[in-house]
């Protein structure tokens, strides 16, 4: 199919067969998996996945691509959901599976990748694992360790829920059109039991957001609405540190102290 990539949908189509093979190997689909692919595009992942699955679900917003998919793929092998991934109910789809769990993959549009990740966090109890192609810089932030320049709100909020592995770096020339940045493939597996459970997850999210709101300022400044010196002493955290110095466990300890 000849298709002009649409900028508003953040379309960059994967074309490198060696990279595609590596991604499918990393996903390791099993015949009966309930797997959903976000943004299937021109089928770089869809076609090799279909060879290994009884059935595949795809979420696609582009009506031109949907029209092509409907004529190209056997209807008994593919269910097409014409939807914005940011609004799609992944938990509802999971009810079709015997264990009410799905696997998720996709070459995510880079312009909305972070909102999609946070949307999937809301459905995380219905997800076995997720494998995504993302901007390399985003993946580096996702897996970053404390006290590094990449570590931030995204790192903390995702690591609270997920174990993540940086798998493969993918160069721009693996895509058409080539993006201006390098890409990377990441595996995200929800923790079966949270390593550091927050008593109030909404409060935990507010603490993390406030702490990273002014990245160069110390916690004494960024969290002054929440903790005084006595509070910092009670949780055993130096108020002269910055947000990037705190582990997920330490952010949870602050939230649980305040809950």
From TrEMBL:
Family: Belongs to the class I-like SAM-binding methyltransferase superfamily. rRNA adenine N(6)-methyltransferase family. RsmA subfamily.
InterPro entries from the UniProt entry: KsgA/Erm, rRNA_Ade_diMease-like_C, rRNA_Ade_Mease_Trfase_CS, rRNA_Ade_methylase_Trfase_N, rRNA_adenine_dimethylase, SAM-dependent_MTases_sf
Residues making up the signal peptide according to the UniProt record: none
Catalytic activity: adenosine(1518)/adenosine(1519) in 16S rRNA + 4 S-adenosyl-L-methionine = N(6)-dimethyladenosine(1518)/N(6)-dimethyladenosine(1519) in 16S rRNA + 4 S-adenosyl-L-homocysteine + 4 H(+)
Binding site for S-adenosyl-L-methionine: 12, 14, 39, 60, 84, 107
Principal localisation: cytoplasm
GO annotations of cellular component type: cytosol
Enzyme Commission no: 2.1.1.182
Keywords from the UniProt entry: Cytoplasm, Methyltransferase, RNA-binding, rRNA processing, S-adenosyl-L-methionine, Transferase
Protein known as: Ribosomal RNA small subunit methyltransferase A
SUPFAM superfamilies in the record: S-adenosyl-L-methionine-dependent methyltransferases (SSF53335)
Superkingdom of the organism of origin: Bacteria
Function comment: Specifically dimethylates two adjacent adenosines (A1518 and A1519) in the loop of a conserved hairpin near the 3'-end of 16S rRNA in the 30S particle. May play a critical role in biogenesis of 30S subunits.
Keyword RNA-binding attributed: yes
Subcellular location field: Cytoplasm
Annotated ranges, domain Ribosomal RNA adenine methylase transferase N-terminal: 19-192
A molecular function GO annotation: RNA binding
